[in-house]
Amino acid sequence: MANADLIIGMNSDRLNQAIGKIFSNSGIRERLFSGSQRSSFNDVSFVGKWVIEAPPVLELRAPTGDEWNTSIKADGNEAIPREDAFITNLHKLNVALSTSDSNRQTVIPVQAICTVDADGKNFSLHAHAAIIDLSAASPMDQFFAKAVIIPQVLSAVNQTLKGIALPVPALPGVSLTSPEVSIQNNRLLISYNMVEHGQPAAPVSVPDLPFFILASQPVEQALVNYIVTSQIQGKRFSKNGSEGGGGFSAEYNANGRVDNIQVRTTNDPTMLSAEVSLSMNASAGINTPAGYIVKGGEIIYEGIKDAANQVAKVMNPSNW
Questions:
Q1: DSSP labels for 25-67?
Q2: Which residue has the higher pLDDT, 101 or 300?
């Protein structure tokens, strides 16, 4: 994984599933994806209605130059190109205009240019501008599109995108830079570096998976160090019992402490290497059974295994 210590990636399928669930709610669909407005143009009164009949579909690719050139923001101005922009398609935008003399209805293909906005380590998706070709539209149609359709469509897309939660990393013991957001090969990529490594660059290559998290070995090591230091090192333990048979038994009582434990990551993220030093003492006059050292070793093994489990738990995005 080049250029970044932590990369979170997802393709459009995961995001569109979330949008589909939002759109399937009839109350939300009626409130966000349809509307009507009475207005006038050149002293001609009309009623305009609009309905988005299918859920918006995110296409994680950068807008082309022509798409930027035909884009219009909610305030009527042309949008300025951005690196973190991607396309959202509205394939079934039904528009109807009614005057005293005529009723016209048409389906207008509209796209929205969306961006990923980061506030610290929190993210939001935002509808930045609409792509709509008005070159062949009548003056009234152009007026209604700019005054009503574009602001309303961008508002609907914005409200939809607010329902999508992007993962925010929470790694104890690891300080990360602010994120670098990029769009590559139908994927949204969010990249971080450890603070000491400076700002990340856009990744060169990523796995062909719907959703993934890639962490560098330094991130894993910092996380392991935190868990070991805060939860294992200095931990006390004790064992007591008896051994023997045939009418003879030897009782023992042993106490110990993990004085120092050094756990290192390996090239295999599922394996850890550990060095452990212990302080142990037994009750006076009692010979510790030979098998006890093995049992004591199990305690340390369990501690190391617990550290690995804690790392896996923290790295699981469902816990973020």
A1: -HHHHHHHSEEEEEEEETTEEEEEEEEE-S--EEE-SPPPHHH
A2: 101
Q: How confident is the model at residue 243 (pLDDT cuts 50, 70, 90)?
A: low
CA-nearest of 255, 254, 261, 274 to 234 is: 261
Question: Is there a contact between 198 and 300 (Cβ–Cβ < 8 Å)?
Answer: no
Class of residue 221 by CB neighbours under 10 A (exposed 0-12, middle 13-18, buried 19+): middle
* Section 50-61 average pLDDT: 91
CA distances from 86 to 130, 203, 206 (A): 12, 17, 18
Mean of the pLDDT values across residues 291-309? 41
Residue 300 CB coordination number (10 Å): 18
pLDDT tens-digit map of 97-130: 898 888 888 888 889 999 988 776 677 889 999 9
Round the CA-based radius of gyration of the chain to a whole number and report it.
Answer: 31
| pLDDT above 70 for 282 | no
**pLDDT, position 130:** 94
Q: Pick from 25, 9, 73, 29: which is nearest to 203 by CA?
A: 9
Q: Other CB atoms closer than 10 Å to residue 95's CB: what's the count?
A: 19
Cite the DSSP H helix spans in the chain. Answer: 12-23, 26-32, 65-69, 139-144, 150-161, 217-231, 290-315
Report the distance separating Cα 9 and Cα 184, nearest Å: 10
Rounded mean pLDDT of 231-241? 67
Return the DSSP state at 4: -
Residue that is written with structure tokens 């042993």 in the block: 254
296, 278 contact by CB (below 8 A): yes
Q: Enumerate helices (H) and strands (E) in the chain, giving the number of each.
A: 7, 14
For the chain, the domains span 6-161, 220-317
Indicate the average pLDDT of the chain.
77
Q: Is 91 left (phi over 0), alpha (psi -120 to 50) or beta?
A: alpha
